[in-house]
Amino acid sequence: MCLAIPGKILGISGENSIMPMGKVSFGGVVREVNLAYVPEAKQGDYVIVHVGFAISILNEKEAQLVLNTLDEIDPETR
Amino acid sequence: MKYIDEYRDRGSIEKCSQRIAEAVTGPWTIMEICGGQTRSIAKHGLESLLPSEITLLHGPGCPVCVTPQSILDHAMEIASNPEVVFCTFGDMMRVPGTNTDLAHIKAEGGDVRIIQSPMEALNLARENADKEVVFLAIGFETTAPANAMALYQSKQQGIKNISFLVSQVLVPPAMESILNSPHSKVQGFLAAGHVCTIMGFEEYEPIAQRYQVPIVVTGFEPLDILMGIDMVVRQLEEGRHEVENQYSRSVQREGNLAAQKILNEVFEVIPKQWRGVGEIPSSGLGLKSVYRHLNAALRFPQKIIYEPLSTNCISGQVLQGLKKPNECEAFGKECTPDSPLGATMVSSEGACAAYFHYQNFQA
Ligand code: SF4
């Protein structure tokens, strides 16, 4: 139910509608997504999408930092 | 970076589980709050990658599972009304009420529609101007902003033939309720990454301090969950009890402020009944008085109130981490996803269904 998945913004539209909308690709499957909660989102950003709404923009730098911690452990110090 | 493959990489997963094994010295019991994480743990067999010292308990974090039977009975009463187009998320169709479920109401001719986003309810209202459209708005903090936006826009646009049957739940009060139980075995929590994406994690800091439990905000992929467990274990081993953030690619300390703004506009905190658990103070969101006119519970007052059925279902204890699904006598026998006795066997994120689908249980 709280399933929310990452997708890539292919384009942003909605100047005429009430809320900003984006076309988001989930591994090739493209859906219209409401971007009202990520007003700073740009084309090319990855967003987490839940029940039709993007709820965050994924931060690549943070993702990389966290992944790096796995390589950082020096076996000698254990 | 694709944000999926990196977190399912076998090499990284092995490295992380080795890291946990090397850090553990004592027996530790950790609860993952969110049903999405329970499902991921079962699906990817993560318990088998953990040292035997670590016990995982599955928490109450599935909104489908905790929606009270009385709300479902009310939903079915409304959905049976020939003047109503009733809409809900697909997960809700087979959750048992006292006598039946929404799928049966639909089969018997009720106009029940499955929608993917709450905003579709507004379209249904425009397309069915001669009918009343009612949306069953359930969910945790993750779903609340989407439901709130549908409410906000319905009010803004002055849509007259729409209303919302609201059953919104909040996670932190449920964690406190679990910790307050004298039977609680929980020593650390994986907090739900998408709930925190909306709400941030400041509200967990007093809980970590008061109950001296480490809380790690955690994502949903296998590597996320193992990393979250690793971070909890390190705190436990070092005697720390802080809030840490494993899911920093999505979660910021303050959360999503744009979403919180709409939540505060539409909802207020209320006491809430949780299915199988009972009432937890300040654990729900109800409509503010300026949204009263969109409250389906007032527009369609409930006429029939059923006594809850007594079954052998122990889902209340499963939801609180007091029992595991396979400790239930009905598990895999009288109770299966095809004929569920409790809501935790219905939703794919319910602990019983996750165990049923992914574990090699002996029927
Ligand atoms: S297996 Fe079925 S009856 Fe047993 S606790 Fe789970 S939902 Fe309830």
UniProtKB/TrEMBL annotation, chain A:
<dbReference type="InterPro" id="IPR019812">
    <property type="entry name" value="Hydgase_assmbl_chp_CS"/>
</dbReference>
<dbReference type="Pfam" id="PF01455">
    <property type="entry name" value="HupF_HypC"/>
</dbReference>
<dbReference type="GO" id="GO:0051604">
    <property type="term" value="P:protein maturation"/>
</dbReference>
<dbReference type="GO" id="GO:0005506">
    <property type="term" value="F:iron ion binding"/>
</dbReference>
<dbReference type="InterPro" id="IPR001109">
    <property type="entry name" value="Hydrogenase_HupF/HypC"/>
</dbReference>
<protein>
    <submittedName>
        <fullName>HypC/HybG/HupF family hydrogenase formation chaperone</fullName>
    </submittedName>
</protein>
<comment type="similarity">
    <text>Belongs to the HupF/HypC family.</text>
</comment>
<dbReference type="GO" id="GO:1902670">
    <property type="term" value="F:carbon dioxide binding"/>
</dbReference>
UniProtKB/TrEMBL annotation, chain B:
<dbReference type="InterPro" id="IPR042243">
    <property type="entry name" value="HypD_1"/>
</dbReference>
<protein>
    <submittedName>
        <fullName>Hydrogenase formation protein HypD</fullName>
    </submittedName>
</protein>
<dbReference type="GO" id="GO:0051604">
    <property type="term" value="P:protein maturation"/>
</dbReference>
<dbReference type="GO" id="GO:0051539">
    <property type="term" value="F:4 iron, 4 sulfur cluster binding"/>
</dbReference>
<comment type="similarity">
    <text>Belongs to the HypD family.</text>
</comment>
<dbReference type="Pfam" id="PF01924">
    <property type="entry name" value="HypD"/>
</dbReference>
<keyword id="KW-0408">Iron</keyword>
<dbReference type="InterPro" id="IPR042244">
    <property type="entry name" value="HypD_2_sf"/>
</dbReference>
<dbReference type="InterPro" id="IPR002780">
    <property type="entry name" value="Hyd_form_HypD"/>
</dbReference>
<dbReference type="GO" id="GO:0005506">
    <property type="term" value="F:iron ion binding"/>
</dbReference>
<dbReference type="GO" id="GO:0070025">
    <property type="term" value="F:carbon monoxide binding"/>
</dbReference>
<keyword id="KW-0479">Metal-binding</keyword>
